[in-house]
Design a protein that fits this description.
Layout lengths: L5 H22 L9 E7 L3 E22 L4 E6 L6 E2 L4 E5 L2 H29 L5 H26 L2 E3 L4 E3 L9 E2 L6 E18 H4 L14 E5 L11 E5 L9 E8 L11 E18 L4 E3 L2 E7 L5 E5 L1 E6 L2 E6 L6 E3 L12 E4 L10 E2 L17
Parallel strand pairs: 1-20, 1-21
Antiparallel strand pairs: 1-19, 2-9, 2-13, 3-5, 3-8, 4-7, 5-6, 7-9, 9-12, 10-13, 11-12, 13-18, 14-15, 15-16, 17-18
């Protein structure tokens, strides 16, 4: 079999390749044309939000009561479980009673004897059988014996150590079998009264200057809220019950204390929480989600949709945080449409398809809430 020369096959191969390439290009499917980017927008409306300042704070029992032994002896029993609530008068500890029972019996016998002696002397003094001085001495001896009996009764009763007030018990400072004394080492445990509960905190002068009154006074504070460690707001508002009259010269802070109801025992002494001081309202501001605010070297800005459906950057003036939103003090107007998603894909002047949160692209943007007070009871705030 004869072979075709290479010079004759090469033109045929090149021609076939060109024909196949042309066919493949003509048959390749075309991709869809890119349209406007769908974005979620919020329509801005002015709001009223409270002036607020948040401060780190710590809870403490409204009353911390020490439970101390009034008599000495061997600790025989512990009646309570540490950390549990107790009522006033409830037994907590038992100190050995034996020596105090003996002392009480002796004092009782002595008191009965002097009482009989006074009765006998009274009959004799009436008939001048004894002198008035002897009778007076017998009365005085009886008074002393009755006082000693009362003291012996008290000492015996004090061997049972009871709770002086309602509260939550602390750790027992002594163990069963320890020798209890009545000196400086007489502390047995402590009781904390947690309803109401107190919250201690301090406010810097710079923070107080942000209030409408420019200074901290009881009249300037319209409410006190408590933000729990999980970020939720405590359901009941508190009130200030202490405001220091001086500024700490070292720290430049003013000491405060607030009181909160705690009937359910949700709050425990020693917790680290945040306190929000409310001081009037800031009117005619806008609330923008934090994720929609872009922070740049020239300041904060948001992306809006202009009248032609295109992206328009808008510089804004921000205040503090209110819940999960920025408080915008300037740069926005009623009806402005602020873009809250797809921010990394946006370019100024690019066309977009705005829609309300949860709606399909092209739907009417969500209108902001009408002007009115914003409720801070259910939305945690944070200072920017």
């Amino acid at each position: 079999m004869s072979r075709a020369p290479t010079s004759r096959l090469l033109p045929l191969l090149l021609g076939s390749a060109l024909i196949l390439g042309a066919c493949s290009k003509s048959e390749a499917p075309k991709g869809p044309a890119m349209g406007p980017l769908p974005v979620t927008v919020l329509e801005m409306q002015p709001r009223n939000v409270p002036y607020s300042v948040e401060i780190m704070a710590q809870t403490e029992g409204a009353k911390e009561t020490e439970v101390r032994a009034r008599v000495g002896g061997i600790l025989m029993k512990q009646f309570y479980q540490e950390g549990q609530p107790v009522k006033a008068g409830q037994p907590l500890f038992q100190i050995d009673r034996s020596t105090y029972e003996i002392a009480y019996a002796e004092a009782k016998a002595r008191a009965e004897q002097t009482e009989r002696e006074v009765a006998r002397m009274k009959k004799l003094v009436d008939v001048q059988g004894v002198s008035r001085k002897e009778y007076d001495d017998a009365v005085s001896a009886n008074d002393l014996a009755q006082a000693a009996l009362r003291q012996a009764q008290l000492n015996l009763s004090w061997t049972t150590v009871t709770a002086p007030v309602d509260g939550i018990t602390g750790r027992a400072e002594k163990s069963v079998g320890n020798l209890i004394t009545t000196g400086a080492d007489s502390l047995l445990t402590t009781l904390s009264q947690n309803d109401p509960i107190w919250v201690r905190f301090s406010l810097a002068e710079s923070e107080a200057a942000k209030l409408p009154s420019q200074r901290l006074t009881p009249e300037a504070i319209t409410g006190v809220e408590l933000i729990l460690p999980d970020g939720s707001v405590y359901p009941q508002r508190g009130k200030l019950n202490f405001l220091a009259s001086t500024i700490d010269p070292t720290l430049g802070t003013q000491q405060l204390r607030a009181e909160f109801p705690n009937k359910e025992g949700v709050l425990l002494p020693g917790q680290f929480v945040r306190v929000r001081l409310l001081a009037g309202e800031r009117q005619g501001v806008y609330l923008v989600p934090q994720k929609a605010v872009l922070q740049t070297e020239r300041g904060n800005l948001v992306m809006t949709v202009d009248g032609e459906g295109k992206v328009a950057p808008r510089p804004i003036q921000t205040g503090d945080w209110f819940g999960s939103d920025w408080v915008v003090l300037g740069g926005l107007h009623p009806g402005d449409k602020v873009i809250i998603d797809n921010l990394m894909k946006l370019k100024p002047g690019a066309p977009v398809a705005p829609h309300a949160p949860g709606a399909a692209p092209g739907a009417t943007p969500a209108a902001g809430k009408p002007t009115g007070p914003a409720k801070s009871e259910t939305t945690p705030a944070k200072q920017g």
